[in-house]
Each structure stands twice: as structure tokens, then as C-alpha cells.
What does this fold into?
Amino acid sequence: MGSCFSARIKAESPPHAGANSRNVSNHRRDLSSSRLSSPSLPQTPRSESEILESPNLKSFGFNDLKTATRNFRPDSVLGEGGFGCVFKGWIDEHTFKAARPGTGLVIAVKRLNQEGLQGHKEWLTEINYLGQLRHPNLVKLVGYCLEDEHRLLVYEFMRRGSLENHLFRRSSYFQPLSWNLRMKVALGAAKGLAYLHSPEAKVIYRDFKSSNILLDSNYKAKLSDFGLAKDGPMDGKSHVSTRVMGTYGYAAPEYIATGHLTTKSDVYSFGVVLLEMLTGRRVIDKTRPPGEHNLIEWAKPCLASKRRIFQVMDVRIEGQYSLGGALRATTLAVKCLAIEPKYRPNMDEVVKALVQLQDLDSGSVKNEVVRKHRNKTCSQDAPSRKAASYARPSPSPMVA
Ligand SMILES: Nc1ncnc2c1ncn2[C@@H]1O[C@H](COP(=O)(O)OP(=O)(O)OP(=O)(O)O)[C@@H](O)[C@H]1O
Ligand SMILES: [Mg+2]
It folds into this structure.
């Protein structure tokens, strides 16, 4: 499943600038362009004292996690992100010591492989947010490891992996998600985001994307990766000013342009993911024909027209949804993607819309309606759809 063997070697070799770049094409990064001045990072001390007190978190020893993941074996790799590789492991649920594979509690261990302050900062932010927040739609952080230069995070294992894999990977394991499951996942992820934005949590997530939505065995969606999370605006301020960090394609245009971060930036990213779910296409996909690299630019003309929305819907869910359902879902995506943040709904409104959508009766007329409208795709590219949907995209900014 995983491809971390090379990355593992890399992690144990001296850092090599530019190495492994194929793996980070759509990972989060500093999105600030030359137009923006990036404030230099503050010097961060690197000790356990930076970690907020949390009764929920366990501090692990490196050797325990090494044994739990069978020495970080390549065939234990669940995936790889910009932070490092994620390994499957087993621990005893009472003692938290390494357990025999297949026994005890299954965990996912994320191992930081990049040197430097940014990696450490994100590792710490993840602990300090996820250690304090608890919600059924947020992934559970079991604990962490800080030992010498080692930085690891230990999560509950999410059996069905990321939404990204289900939407874009082709293998016998990752069957296309049905319309109903897509809507269930959208609702779960929206609830997670609504909780983060609520007065109780008051957090801006800043990294909402399909690879950060993890699915349990029942396809319950949980948000992971809080390395970029920020406290929401305080004292009547409308936004937080930050260095522009995020993932190309998902980050809101006004945030990229100004560095002003609001909860509406997350709503925009939610719209992007909803559109990925409806179309089965990545937001940025350079393997597509010219004019189709950017999903939003490609799909928007069709989303505005009731007659044309079926031209952009994923062919793999054809016949599973009603005209009314498809229209409601695409309309919601369009609202979230409004260029002006004030025209985007808030996440409570998004949750409400998705609950109503689930309640819609999916009658038998739907198949006819869908087939009648599906003569050609938005840009007559039907033959390229299948072949182009495998590769991860190279990023490109949303704004000119
Ligand atoms: N708790 C978990 N349970 C099961 N699989 C997981 C878990 N956490 C991560 N993964 C797998 O590991 C992959 C890599 O995750 P990671 O968060 O490191 O990177 P990413 O989200 O792809 O990119 P980025 O670094 O930009 O967030 C995920 O896409 C998922 O398939
Ligand atoms: Mg992630």
C-alpha cells in the first residue's frame, strides 16, 4: 500500500534539498508569494514544556513505537504526507506498550521526517489543538513521542484511510464511493468543521482537503492534521493575519492574496472538497487536457446551469442520485466557493443543507433524469476522464 521505503531511507540519510519532491506536490506548504512579506518564524524552544497539559494524551517512548510498528517497516506504511510517513501499529490498550501485531489497540503513527522549525511547530500545534479538542468528527490523538530528535504522533487507526484515496485511487480495495456515502462523508466532515468554528472551540482549521478527511470502518468522517490550526479572531477582530500556509487549490483566494484568515476560508476549502466528491476529480490535475487543470474553473460554467450539472458529475455515481439532490449539492458547493467570503454560508448552514439533502427521497425517476442529461461532459472530454484520474496534481495557485 505505502511507498515510504524511499522516504524512510531519506529520513535516515542526511537531508537532501529537493529530494522526494514527487511526494509533496499537493501537501501543505508556505503559499506566500513574492507579493507577501513572510514574517520570520519566532525561535521556538524544543522541549516538553511547550506541550499543553492534557489528561487525554499519553507520552510514548521511541522504542515502544518502533516495536509497535515493527521497526517502521515499509509494509506498515499507511500513507505519506509533507510531515512524514504514517505507519500502522499495535499497542496494549491498558499499558500502552507495544503489542503483538493483530492484538490490542490499532494505532497510526506519524513520524516527522523533516528537520527544522516548521515541522516541529506543526507537530506541537497538532498536539496542543487535538489534545484539547474532542468531537466525534475529529480524529483522536492518543499521544506523542518527543525523544532526542524524534517527533511522532499517535492516532486512533482509521480503517478506511483518507477520502482522497477513495475518490482518486484505483485498486480493488478502494471501490468508488456511492452517492449516499459521499453525502454521509460530506456531512460528517462539515460537522467536524462546524464544531471547530463554534464558540466552544473557536478554531480555524486552515488545512481542509480530501487527504485530511479520514474514514472509520463505517465511513464516519473525521478531520485529521491540525498542524496549521489557528485560534479564531478575538476581541471583535474580523480576521487573523498569518503567513499564508495551506495547500494549492484548497486555500481561499482572499487568504492567498492578503493573508487574512477567517472561518470563511475553511468554508471555501469545504466547497472545493464537496466539488471533488461530486465530480470525482482532483482540484488541481495537470494530467487533464488543457483547460481542465483547475477543477473550479472547469466546472463552474456547468454548475450554474440546471441543464448542465450532469456534465460534471462523477460518472461512477450515475443513477444513484436524484436531480433535486444533485442540484442541492452543486448549489451548496457553488455558495461555499463564492469569491466574496461574506456570500459563503457558515458551517452551521452547510450542515443544515446537508442534513436536508440526506432526507431527500431518492425515487426511481432519478436514473432516467441523470441519463437524459449526460450526453457530453462539460468540455466534451469524456474519453479522457478515466485515464486522467490517477495521478496526484502539481499545485498551482488559485489567484492570478
Ligand atoms: N489515523 C490514521 N489512520 C489511518 N490512515 C491514516 C491516518 N492518518 C493518516 N493516514 C494515512 O496517511 C496518509 C498521509 O497522511 P498525512 O496527514 O501525513 O499526509 P497528507 O494529508 O496526505 O498530506 P499533508 O502532509 O499535506 O497533510 C493519509 O492520506 C492517510 O491515507
Ligand atoms: Mg494529512
In short: Residues 81, 211-212, 224-225 surround magnesium ion (ligand 2) (CB under 6 Å). The chain has two domains: 8-156, 161-385. The longest strand covers residues 84-91.
